[in-house]
Specification:
Strand order of the largest sheet: 5-4-3-6
Structural class: alpha+beta
Bound molecules: zinc ion
Oligomer: single chain
Strand content: 25-35%
Number of strands: 6
Distance between the termini: 67 Å
Order of helices and strands: EEEEEHEH
Largest sheet: 4 strands, mixed
């Protein structure tokens, strides 16, 4: 039976886990890869950055693979007009009011 050696970054415990207790993940928009498991010693949910090669080796060993993508909001352009003198004056008034409400000098 395949067992995969892992080290928990939270508690430092070494352990070996079965492939079905790990998840390998790759971002399809960037070169980001990781694997995740729950530490048997401290019960922390652990995610460890790794390489595409390690993800491939894990999935060949029976680890479940999850591909994910960055949120679409990251690529949306949001038109924004530059601040005017009035915006700056209104912002200053808001900060002054908050400062007064919270008793700061
Ligand atoms: Zn741990």
């Amino acid at each position: 039976m395949t067992r995969i050696l892992v080290t928990c970054p939270e508690c430092g415990a070494d352990g070996d886990v079965r492939p079905q207790h790990l998840v390998a993940r790759s971002c399809i928009d960037a070169d980001w890869h990781s694997y995740a498991f729950r530490c048997e010693a401290c019960r922390s949910a652990v995610s460890i950055d790794t390489s595409a090669d390690i993800v491939e080796r894990l999935t060949r060993s029976g680890v479940r693979f999850v591909a994910w993508s960055l949120p679409a909001e990251l690529t949306e352009s949001r038109p924004c007009s530059p601040w005017t003198a009035r915006d700056l004056r209104d912002f200053h008034a808001e900060v002054a009011q908050l400062t007064t409400l919270h008793g700061a000098a």
